[in-house]
Amino acid sequence: MPSDIILIGPQGVGKSTIGELLAQQLDLPQCSMDEHRWNYYNEIGYDDAIAKQKRETEGAWGIIRYWKPFEVYAVERLLSEHTNCVIDFGAGHSVYDDPLLFQRVKRALAPYPNVVLLMPSPDLEESLDILNTRNHKLPEDIRRTNEHFVRYPSNCTLAKFTVYTKAKTPAETCHEVLQVVNVS
């Protein structure tokens, strides 16, 4: 069984920050989906012109829908290439409306015992308030998509553990993650 730690959750929850701390604590490499995604997307025909058109004509939801097949492929590729590390997904890489795409990600994550959902609070409204404050510089339509990432059940279904970050320092959150996961 892979001993990797995989962090999932909405935008601005701290996946990359906590991932970096965990990697340092465990003396493992950190693997961030945001650093690899574009190479994976390009492998299967990602088109910047189409993405730009979707963003301009359909807003944030248009681009997010366009990304979904690329995101699931990126999850599969990242997990097949990187082992014995701390992985942090992009916010959308664990949320899928399409049942077939969701099943692919669920299947890819099934062997991993340490899939950790980071959320600000068990209260979804409070989580959204916290995330909206943290993400205040993002365009409004992008912040609204984060509400979907918080409310949609994909993250809860995929996660083996949930750790709440409200009122905790990143170091305290890192410590809590280390207490719930099984890393040998």
UniProtKB/TrEMBL annotation:
InterPro entries: P-loop_NTPase, Shikimate/glucono_kinase
Signal peptide range: none
GO molecular-function term, one example from the UniProt record: kinase activity
Domain of life: Bacteria
Record keyword Kinase present: yes
Record key words, sorted: Kinase, Transferase
UniProt keyword Transferase, yes or no: yes
Pfam families reported in the protein's UniProt record: SKI
Name of the protein in question: Shikimate kinase
Biological source species: Adonisia turfae CCMR0082
